[in-house]
Write a sequence for this structure.
């Protein structure tokens, strides 16, 4: 037989071999294996938030639960109290106070800066 | 197991094996059935012709399919191997392991004879497969694998090279030499049978 020759008898055997199909019980076993693997995969998926837990639940989780939420609430209440009860102190810390606008403050005078820039 | 979702099966039947692997990993039972229908026959034929023993071939085919299922979660769609070539590679390795463990290079298929002995057509088919397996068993293991993958499973030479982990030129050589040797072996067997009758 030369390399490019065909062998009809052999080709017929190959054809017959291609027709072979798995027995039903093997197919059943393979499908059972598949179902077992799929069930295991489903069981290993991370558990999601239970149904009914909406936006507030997710926000609560993001803040660290109820303890986190109580901290945020306390900070808010303190801010309000500060706004109502100590306006003089706030004034000093803002525009008219020592921190930003006072003559003895640390902020440089713009006029001084302009002169220095002109000297350059 | 019955097929509870024929309509879904028809819809998914157009999908590639790659896509079905993705669906399988999401728990789709129809994808599992379709992949089984497409790939199990290939795995079983490959194993049966290399091992020459149907009981062992069924074990190998089932094990190879199990490894495919376990691979589904991490399967890369459009990756270098298709599910079919990947499966053939697993079958080839499992079959060779069995042949080497048993210390045999050949395996004749006596087990095939106990299937439906009352059907004459089945007996003829079994006899022909036994003759083919006897011829294949005379080939070196690599030649046998290459001939089965090329001439029975219809894989391309590059795919066979991928399955067997060798070059394409080596595949061409193996399949050509293997087919010639198989043809000679079957002719000799035919002469022996005619001399004996």
């Amino acid at each position: 037989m030369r390399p490019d020759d065909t062998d009809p008898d052999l080709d017929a055997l190959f054809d017959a071999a291609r027709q072979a199909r798995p027995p039903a019980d093997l197919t059943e076993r393979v499908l059972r294996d598949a179902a077992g693997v799929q069930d295991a995969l489903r069981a290993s998926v991370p558990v999601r938030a239970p149904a009914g837990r909406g936006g507030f639940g997710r926000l609560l989780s993001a803040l660290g639960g109820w303890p986190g939420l109580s901290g945020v609430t306390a900070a808010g209440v303190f801010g309000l109290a500060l706004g109502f009860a100590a306006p003089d102190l706030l004034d000093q810390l803002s525009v008219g106070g020592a921190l930003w606008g006072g003559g003895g403050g640390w902020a440089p005078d713009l006029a001084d800066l302009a002169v220095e820039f002109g000297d350059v | 197991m019955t097929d509870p979702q024929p309509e879904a099966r028809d819809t998914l039947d157009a999908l590639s094996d790659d896509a079905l692997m993705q669906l399988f990993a999401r728990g789709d039972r129809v994808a599992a059935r379709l992949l089984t229908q497409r790939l199990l026959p290939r795995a079983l034929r490959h194993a049966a012709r290399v091992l020459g023993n149907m009981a062992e071939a069924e074990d190998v085919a089932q094990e190879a399919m199990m490894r495919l299922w376990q691979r589904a979660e991490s399967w890369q769609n459009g990756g270098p191997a298709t599910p079919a070539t990947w499966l053939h590679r697993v079958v080839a390795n499992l079959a060779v392991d069995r042949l080497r463990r048993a210390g045999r290079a050949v395996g004749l298929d006596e087990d095939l004879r106990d299937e439906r002995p009352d059907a004459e057509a089945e007996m003829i088919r079994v006899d022909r497969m036994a003759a083919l397996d006897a011829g294949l068993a005379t080939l070196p293991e690599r030649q046998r694998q290459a001939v089965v993958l090329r001439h029975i499973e219809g894989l391309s030479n590059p795919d066979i090279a991928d399955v067997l982990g060798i070059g394409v030129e080596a595949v061409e050589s193996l399949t050509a030499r293997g087919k010639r040797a198989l043809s000679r072996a079957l002719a000799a067997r035919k002469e022996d049978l005619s001399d004996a009758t």
